[in-house]
Amino acid sequence: MSDGRVSGAAVAGRSIAPLDLISPDDISAGAVRALHSWRRRDGALDFEAMSRQDLFPPIEPYASGMLRLDGTYSMYWEQSGNPHGIPAVFLHGGPGAGATATHRRFFDPDGYRIVIFDQRGAGRSTPLGGTTDNTLAHLVADTELLREYLGIERWLLFGGSWGSTLALAYAETYPERCRAMVLRGIFLCRRAEIDWFLYGMRTIYPEAWRAFVGHLAEDERSDILAAYHRRLADPDPAVHLAAARAWSSYEGSCSTLLPSPDTVAAFGEERMALGLARIETHYFRHNLIPPEEDLVARVGRIRHLPATIVQGRYDMVCPIVGADELARAWPEADYIIVPDAGHSAMEPGIRAALVAAIEQHRQR
């Protein structure tokens, strides 16, 4: 599942009151400490302090390149921030969505060495939308290859939506290479989550779902996933691009608590839509995580790592039940439920909680 995107204009002026709205059952003691700076001495919320917990200013990479993965794929990577800072890697959503310049801005560039890459087949990596030899195991291996290539011993993992899936799988495979984790919008790559995406979300977003299935012929709608997968593999751009935009726009329409035309427009952009739709349908059909490799079942391998889980209460793309199960299996992790947010990382409350969590881990 992807990271939602909205412009600054779409969220400017919306006030958020995390400590007033989050109940004691929704937030851990560690998270309260992380967010405590939003309180003034008189007990009122300090909105100026809250604004400082927004994204950091835009920055440009100080290094970037293409890392050859095999005979088919090359992976785009970049580094920004402080070359001598704490290494942190951003794991984007989708699968297949790719990363953007905005994603650098979750990290303090003075304190972090910020690593961002586009997973195989996504974003600026080539070939776009490639599905051959594209599995979660491949992505875990690619992530480790990049760590070795950049000469990083241990790094903080920051992943949302599908990025949380990859972060958990990587950490459970290479726990010794991880120093901390910040996870958002938990997705565990299970059949029930796929069925919810394809059929369950219509109970909340019936108009978006009608547009989603309306792209298909009547006789294709008995198996939505197979129909989209078939259309996305069609060599005719008129067929696969139209299907990609319909699939991606459906996800974008359901990613924010309040309607966000900017988010829907970003999801409909050609490169984003094609990478997301092709690779997402590929994973949903062929790469569900088997019970013996279940990410929650293996969480004991990483419970010693400092971690923060951030989840929107009204996340319709990755419902809160997955985050709740993970948090119950990982009681040492800080668990923050943002009560007035959906799925997108750019929801004001989620965005602020993520920045606060990353700052908290820098100070540990």
Structural key phrases:
364 residues, 2 domains, alpha/beta, eight-stranded mixed beta sheet, Rossmann fold, globular, single chain
What's this entry about, in short?
This protein has two domains: 63-190 and 289-363, Rossmann fold, CATH 3.40.50; 192-286, no CATH class. The protein contains 14 helices and eight strands.
Structure explained in plain terms:
- It is a single chain.
- The protein is an alpha/beta fold.
- It contains 14 helices and eight strands.
- The protein has an eight-stranded mixed sheet with strand order 1-2-4-3-5-6-7-8, sandwiched between helices.
- It has two domains: 63-190 and 289-363, Alpha/Beta hydrolase fold, catalytic domain (Rossmann fold, 3-Layer(aba) Sandwich); 192-286, no CATH class.
- It is globular.
How are strands sequenced across the largest beta sheet?
A: 1-2-4-3-5-6-7-8
CATH class of the largest domain: Alpha Beta
Write the CATH fold name of the largest domain.
Rossmann fold
- Helix count equals 14
Low-confidence stretches: 5-39, 44-52
C-alpha end-to-end distance: 30 Å
Shape: globular
Rg = 19 Å
How many distinct folded domains? 2
Helix proportion = 25-40%
Structural class: alpha/beta
Q: What would the average pLDDT be, to the nearest integer?
A: 89
Regarding quaternary structure, how should these chains be classified? single chain
CATH superfamily of the largest domain: Alpha/Beta hydrolase fold, catalytic domain
Largest sheet: 8 strands, mixed
Strand segment tally? 8
In the CATH classification, which architecture of the largest domain applies?
3-Layer(aba) Sandwich
Strand content: 5-15%
